[in-house]
Amino acid sequence: MGQYGNQPDFGTEATDEITTVDKNQASERKGYLGGACLYVGTAGDLQVIIAGTLGGGQTYAPVLFKNVPAGSILPVIVDYIISSKTTATDFVALK
To answer: Tens digit of pLDDT for each residue in 11-29?
Structure first.
């Protein structure tokens, strides 16, 4: 049987110490998640910046996921959670 740590399809790190930021703080790297997918504990809207879209002179726009259900894993890799339109809570970042 293989080891989960060697499999790219499984998360091997998790944290629930997540700081949401406003859009301007993202450029200062506050609340940086480093390319994580998110477990959403309490349902609501979730605004994120997709991994790799900030920096290097690229323009970025936060993406708003509406009505994310409680207990779901969002299958998108993100760098930041933007606080202004996020109503979902109790996140776990998985890498």
So the answer is: 788 999 999 998 877 777 7
Query: What range does the domain containing 33 cover?
Result: 19-94
Determine the 3-state secondary structure of 11 from DSSP: coil
pTM summary value: 0.83
State how far the Cα of 90 lies from the Cα of 70, in Å rounded to an integer: 9
pLDDT digits (tens, 9 = 90+) for 60-93: 678 999 999 999 999 999 999 999 999 999 999 9
The domain tally of the chain equals 1
Give a yes or no: residue 9 inside a domain.
Answer: no
Residue 89 β-bridge partners: 42
| Cα 15 from Cα 30, distance rounded (Å) | 16
Q: In what order do the strands lie in the sheet with 63-68?
A: 14-15, 89-94, 36-42, 72-82, 44-50, 63-68
Tokens of 10: 């499984």
